[in-house]
Amino acid sequence: MTKRKGLLVVISGFSGAGKGTLVKKLLSEHENYRLSVSATTRAPRPGEVDGKDYFFVSKSRFEEMIIKQELIEYASYVGNYYGTPKAFVKEALAAGSDVLLEIEIQGALKVRERFPEAILIFVAPPDAETLRSRLLGRGTETPEQVTARLRRAAEESQWMPDYDYLLINDDLEHAAEELHFMIDSQHSRMSQNRRFAERIRDDLNKHFLKEDL
């Protein structure tokens, strides 16, 4: 049986859209997903664990990673760096796992440049007021920071058409099921199965494409 190739799945969305919660739900319910832990220079939020939620590094260490080309992509967002370490992603894909990258829009578009086969999914709330309520409800940022994130969301909305799929996160259970279906269905694309198609074509031609049949 042909080994299933791993998929690189980029999940982005406005801050407060719930993409992190959706990713955690997928990881808890499906064994084949692996989360690519991003590196960031921002401070940890309550409950976040270094090496699990993010690799929390200094600005100087992050800039060293850039120079040494240890990142697939990186971007600056609201005053902090975010980036995707290269080694883990390549190893997980080679092992057949579907690798989830929960990253910002700038980084997502850079991944698309380097990995054209990557699947880009944009997570959005049902409406703007819901997004504002979710950001305020987190209670982790000042009103000024919330306003900055909403302004940033307004800017980011222009990039939504560059993604392959749009996922509206209104109901968590339904959104998680839809997200899994979006990803799992990609394994049936011909681009993911070209080697199998070529092999069975060659076998059929070799054994059955004869003039006397």
Automatic annotation (TrEMBL):
<keyword id="KW-0067">ATP-binding</keyword>
<feature type="domain" description="Guanylate kinase-like">
    <location>
        <begin position="6"/>
        <end position="184"/>
    </location>
</feature>
<dbReference type="InterPro" id="IPR020590">
    <property type="entry name" value="Guanylate_kinase_CS"/>
</dbReference>
<keyword id="KW-0963">Cytoplasm</keyword>
<comment type="similarity">
    <text>Belongs to the guanylate kinase family.</text>
</comment>
<keyword id="KW-0808">Transferase</keyword>
<keyword id="KW-0547">Nucleotide-binding</keyword>
<dbReference type="InterPro" id="IPR027417">
    <property type="entry name" value="P-loop_NTPase"/>
</dbReference>
<comment type="function">
    <text>Essential for recycling GMP and indirectly, cGMP.</text>
</comment>
<dbReference type="GO" id="GO:0004385">
    <property type="term" value="F:GMP kinase activity"/>
</dbReference>
<dbReference type="InterPro" id="IPR008144">
    <property type="entry name" value="Guanylate_kin-like_dom"/>
</dbReference>
<dbReference type="GO" id="GO:0005829">
    <property type="term" value="C:cytosol"/>
</dbReference>
<dbReference type="GO" id="GO:0005524">
    <property type="term" value="F:ATP binding"/>
</dbReference>
<dbReference type="Pfam" id="PF00625">
    <property type="entry name" value="Guanylate_kin"/>
</dbReference>
<dbReference type="InterPro" id="IPR008145">
    <property type="entry name" value="GK/Ca_channel_bsu"/>
</dbReference>
<feature type="binding site">
    <location>
        <begin position="13"/>
        <end position="20"/>
    </location>
    <ligand>
        <name>ATP</name>
    </ligand>
</feature>
<keyword id="KW-0418">Kinase</keyword>
<dbReference type="InterPro" id="IPR017665">
    <property type="entry name" value="Guanylate_kinase"/>
</dbReference>
<protein>
    <recommendedName>
        <fullName>Guanylate kinase</fullName>
        <ecNumber>2.7.4.8</ecNumber>
    </recommendedName>
</protein>
